[in-house]
Amino acid sequence: MANDAAAPLLALEAKGFQIRFLSHARAILTVDFPQVLQELADALATLTIPIEELVGSGGGESKGTQRLRRALASRAWTKKRFEITKTINGEPRESTSHEMDHVREIAERGIVALEIEWNNKDPFFDRDLENFKRVHAEGAISVGIIITRGSSLQDGMRKAVNRFAETRRIDAFEKLEPFGVLPTRRQRTAIEARMKLRKEAFPNAWVDHFVSDKYGSATTHWRKLEDRIQRRVGNPCPLLLIGLPDSIVTFD
C-alpha cells in the first residue's frame, strides 16, 4: 500500500468512506493523476458536518457541502463548461454544453471532473453520469468522480437525528425554531396526524417524518448511485465513486 498512489484516498476507508474505482479509473488516477488523489484525500479527511447543520439546512446547499466545495476550489478545482460543436463541411450541425462543478486540469496529463450530490433527487445521478460519458467520449476528461452520502450515513440518519432530538429535548415545533427548522403546513399536518393516529410522541413523529421527507430513499445516496452503475449508466467512462460515512456527523 505504501507505494500505491491511491493510498491517501484508500486510507479514508478506515474512517468508513466508501471508495469504488470503475473502468480502470484506479490505474489512470494513480499513474497520471496522483496529485488529484492526494488533493481529494486532504479535502475529505477534515470534512465534518455538525448535527445542527444536518438538521437545520434549508432548501439550499448545506454548509458542509459548501465547505467541501471551498476546499476543492482552494486546490484549483474550478467550475468549467465544456462546449462540444460538430460540423459537416464547415457548417455547424450540433452543439451541446456540459457544465461541471469541479474540474481539475493537470498540465500534459489531462482533466478530471467531479460532482457532489449531497441531497438532490436521485435522477441527478443520471445527469452526472451521462455528462461524464459524453465528455469522456470526446476526449475532454479522463475520469469522472461523484461524491455522495454513503450507506452508513444514509442508514444512520434516523439514529443521528433522534440523538439530536433527545439531547436538545425537542418535544414541540417551537423547540425546532432556534435550529432553523421551520416545518411547512404540510409537514406539520403530517406530523400531527402521526401523533394522533399512531399515538406517537412528538420526537418520534417528527424524526421519522423529517428523515423520510428530507433524506428519503429517492434522494442522492450510495445505493441509488450503485443502481445506476449496475445498469451501466455512464459506461465506459472511468469513474471514482466516494460515499461519505456517518463518522463525519459531529455532536457537541
Kindly describe this structure.
- 42% of the residues lie in helices and 23% in strands.
- It is of the alpha/beta class.
- The radius of gyration is 21 Å and the shape is elongated.
- The model has no long low-confidence stretch (mean pLDDT 93).
Give a short summary of the structure:
The chain has helices at 7-10, 25-32, 34-45, 51-56, 63-73, 123-137, 151-155, 157-167, 185-197, 202-214, 222-230; strands at 18-22, 49-50, 78-88, 91-106, 110-117, 143-149, 239-244, 249-250. The chain is an alpha/beta fold and 252 residues long. A 6-stranded mixed β-sheet has the order 1-7-6-5-4-3. Strands 2-8 form a two-stranded parallel sheet.
Largest sheet: 6 strands, mixed
Distance between the termini: 35 Å
Element-level helix/strand string:
HEHHEHHEEEHEHHHHHEE
How much of the residues is beta strand, in percent? Answer: 15-25%
Radius of gyration: 21 Å
- Discrete helix count: 11
Strand order of the largest sheet: 1-7-6-5-4-3
Helix share, percent:
40-55%
Number of strands: 8
Could you list the spans in which at least 5 consecutive residues all have pLDDT below 50?
A: none
